[in-house]
Amino acid sequence: MSEATAVSIQNLSKSFDEIEVLRDVDLMVNKGEVVTILGSSGSGKSTLLRCINWLEQPDRGIIKIAGQRIGVTDGGKPMSMRELAKVRARTGMVFQSFNLWPHLNVLHNVTEAPIHVLGKSRSEAEAYAHELLDKVGMSHKAKAYPNTLSGGQKQRVAIARALAMRPEVMLFDEPTSALDPELVGEVLAVIKALSAEGYTMVIVTHEMTFARAVSDQVVFLEKGRIIERADPETFFTRPDTERVRKFLERNEG
Amino acid sequence: MNASAWNMLLEGAWVTLWISGVSIALGVVAGLLVALVRLAKIPIIDQLLVLYISLARATPLVTLTLFIFLSAPNFGIQLDRSVAGILALTINTTAFNAEIWRSAFGNFSREQREAAMAMGMTPWVMFRRIMFPQLTITSLPGLVNEMSFLIKGSPAIAVIGIVDLTRVTNRISAVTYEPLPPILVACVLYMAIIGCLVWLQRVAERRANRLAE
Amino acid sequence: MSNWEILWLERAQFIDGFISTLEIFGLSISVAFVIGCGMLYMLEGAKPRLEVPLRIFVDSMRMLPFLILVYLLYYGLPSFGIRLNAWWAGVGALAVYHGCYFAEIFRGVRQTFSPGQVEAARACGFNTGKMFLRLILPQIIMRARPLIGNQLIYALKDTAFLVIITVRELTAAANSLSGTYFIPTEAFVVVIGCYWLVSMSMELIIKQCGRFSAKRGFDNV
Fold first, then answer.
1. Looking at residue C74, what DSSP letter applies?
2. Fewer CB within a 10 Å sphere, N or C end of chain B?
3. H or E segment and range at residue C28
């Protein structure tokens, strides 16, 4: 594995009560690369993403974040919560339902983990937080509480919160699925801007146009297996499998 | 009523306030501890706590106060009256508070926890920084309501001779032979104390609702 | 002779106290229930002029300790020439105090009703009284039953306050026995057990009512 690999997944398998949701999944994400995971609902794409930061524990397989294995120590034992937290801190995750902390204002949502996980000083964390809030267009709401924000605004803050950890990889779990249609655009615009800046990202989404525009690599998951992977141009214009062709037809427009 | 009667009433109010205040503080913390231990679901200890909560909820405060004060010497402990009173109120309120805390824990969303874990928080940091502040806000209305109940139950400590705001009216009328005025003043004082708590509860409810949005 | 044997020999005192507590509880809670229903009826709009004073009365009661109301009736009323003995003062205080709580519980449940029901009943020609008795009250009672159950337990516990004005009930029995024989621990363990048993049975009965009510579809109106 080269220095340039941000995430590597080998032979990943996972079952929920006898039902296999992921089967022998392999995936490499290079630094600076944007990978989108597509698939119909129930294909296992969210589970795959949640395995990367061990929110779901896989049954088999090896996952490495920037060369560091997650979930299992070098000695082969399961990681303690403390060790796990350290590796997780190198990833940033954006959830479908935003999951901002309602008792903290926007600024403190962003500075909370840098201060209490990374041990940064408040002033340093706040300076960087303001920079990030500026980037997602939310600096004017720094003092607002999450319950006063629209869904799109919440998600932009959630993106800033994840970025504040200076993660090796950003994980997006259907970031626009819970949004009203008119708010989807502002969030996608922010993610697009990040991709242009060279952030490494793994994105689970249903937005085809967006996936085509932003991805370096598109992966299609079906019944827990990757049945197609290609650059976006190839994927969207001449896919290999009948299954993907059907999927694209149904999701056109 | 003369000046000394007023003084006595205020002293009685003070006794009610400080004994209740200490019991409330102890009961809120002890209730949290009981809730935490119950979350750990340790066999035997869990069943014992369930039994304790069930018994404490069914036992009248007067009975509990008498029981503690009278039977402590049997176990070689000499209890001061106020200590016995505080103990009885605390044992009672802890059981109710434990249930309030526990239901807040039970309703805490998995998403909030996942967001904290994904940011690399250890369980302890997550509890301290994310869970506990939110649990406090959601539990506060229930806890304040329970505080009102504690004040309303506090005259029970009069049964072991503590001169609280209720009992003091007897003392005054023993001198003045006019029982009604001191009782009415005591009523007004109780309403003022509990009125404050009711107001506090409304404020706490508004904050909790804002969090729940 | 062990302490427990003494208690067994003196069981008559416990039984008397227990029966006395149950009598006080049963009588006062029945009256309280009627008072609660009556207040609800008046708040329902039957007597508009009474509404504000009634709300003030209910809210004041809910801001007072039970014992101070007992004091008012027992020590205070004689100032107006009304002399109640300890037993009646206790029953009266319990009935009024918990009647107000019942009224508040009922009112809270009433507010969750849809106005459509009442309108439908009026359209069918029900008058206020009939509508209240046949339509509103049964639903409120069935839906409020967990809260009613809680209130019953509070009322049972409040009967113990009456020992302070020398009513001979269950806690008084334990108190006098522990004074006579110096066996407070055993005496109070028995008494606490009695309160616990009654509370548990009430909870059980309320739960059983819940099954009945679910069958009749009261819960998903």
1. I
2. C
3. helix C11-41
What CATH class does C3-220 carry? mainly alpha
ipTM of the complex: 0.92
Is B118 within 8 Å of A85 when comparing Cβ atoms? no
What is the CATH code of the structural domain delimited by B3-212? 1.10.3720.10
User: Does an interface of 3+ CB pairs under 8 Å exist between C and A?
Assistant: no
Domain ranges of chain C: 3-220
What order do you get walking across the sheet with A217-222 strand by strand? A91-94, A169-173, A201-204, A34-38, A217-222, A225-230
Nearest CA in chain C to B72: C185
Q: CA-CA distance, A51 to A27, in Å (whole number)?
A: 12
Q: Considering only alpha carbons, which residue of chain C is nearest residue B190?
A: C64
Residue A230's CB is within 10 A of a number of other CB atoms, namely 18
Cβ-Cβ contacts under 8 Å between A and B: the total is: 75
First to last CA, chain B: 52
B residues 126-165 lying closer than 8 A (beta carbon) to A: 129-130, 133-134, 137
Instruction: Classify residue A112 by burial, with Cβ atoms within 10 Å: 0-12, 13-18, 19+.
Output: buried
How many other C-beta atoms can be found within 10 angstroms of the C-beta atom of residue B54?
A: 15
pLDDT digits (tens, 9 = 90+) for A130-168: 999 999 999 999 999 999 999 999 999 999 999 999 999
Instruction: State pLDDT tens for residues B148-179.
Output: 999 999 999 999 999 999 999 999 998 888 89
